[in-house]
Specification:
Largest sheet: none
Shape: globular
Number of strands: 0
Order of helices and strands: HHHHHHHHH
């Protein structure tokens, strides 16, 4: 067991070094120069704050994990948070973060179905909280942000897309039967497309996802401790 942990740590360090090399190779001198010129205390503070964010994130996983595994520990939740950050950082568009987390949760004696529910809860809370803060910022200083950057309209588009996603998730949770009927209609449309080989399987997968969302939204609304 000890050898396996050492191997995993070495493997992660190697992958991290490789990723950093390919990301920074065109500006390596500038990055290294900037780091060496920083105040050591300031550098430690920056690294500490970055780590603290992930540790707090890990505490959230601990709170959720306890619901599915009574023996779940804080260090397990922190491990899941760091795994999520690592895999999100090394995969395109951060697509690998939740896959890595689901794998680790399963190793921590949390069933795959419960891992999916846990990650859905995390996603819903994170997105909802973020959109509340961003909405407040836009309401208070919209004109100032608009004048600051020519990219603001793109940022606004991203904000609108995120709002639509959140509203869709809550709509699915509140009206699951209507969503299932919509999926049935969509299956009939997709069945006519040549590149959709098994529309029924696709609808079944979407329905299971809808059930997970419904379960977690109801759980969060009733669970004062998780709120």
């Amino acid at each position: 067991m000890r050898k396996r942990y050492i191997f995993n740590i070495v493997l992660i360090l190697i992958v991290t070094a490789a990723v950093m090399y390919f990301v920074l190779r065109d500006n390596m001198d500038v990055v290294v120069s900037s780091i060496t010129q920083m105040n050591p205390i300031a550098l430690i503070a920056v690294l500490g704050l970055g780590s603290l964010y992930t540790v707090v994130w890990g505490f959230v996983y601990y709170v959720f994990g306890k619901k599915y595994n009574p023996d779940y520990k804080i260090k397990d939740g922190i491990a899941v948070a760091f795994v999520g950050s690592f895999f999100a950082g090394i995969t395109p568009s951060a697509t690998g973060g939740q896959f890595g987390q689901a794998f680790v949760l399963n190793k921590q004696n949390v069933k795959v179905s419960d891992s999916v529910s846990l990650l859905w809860a995390d996603f819903i809370i994170y997105q909802s909280t973020m959109m509340v803060y961003v909405t407040i910022l836009f309401a208070l200083k919209y004109n100032e942000y608009l004048a600051q950057s020519s990219w603001f309209l793109m940022i606004l588009l991203g904000y609108i897309i995120n709002v639509i996603v959140i509203l869709t998730l809550y709509t699915i949770a509140l009206f699951p039967k209507a969503y299932v009927r919509l999926l049935g209609w969509l299956a009939r449309v997709l069945a006519k497309l040549p590149f959709i080989k098994d529309p029924d399987a696709l609808v079944l997968n979407w329905t299971m996802q809808a059930q997970s969302i419904t379960k977690e939204v109801k759980t969060l609304s009733q669970d004062k401790d998780a709120s």
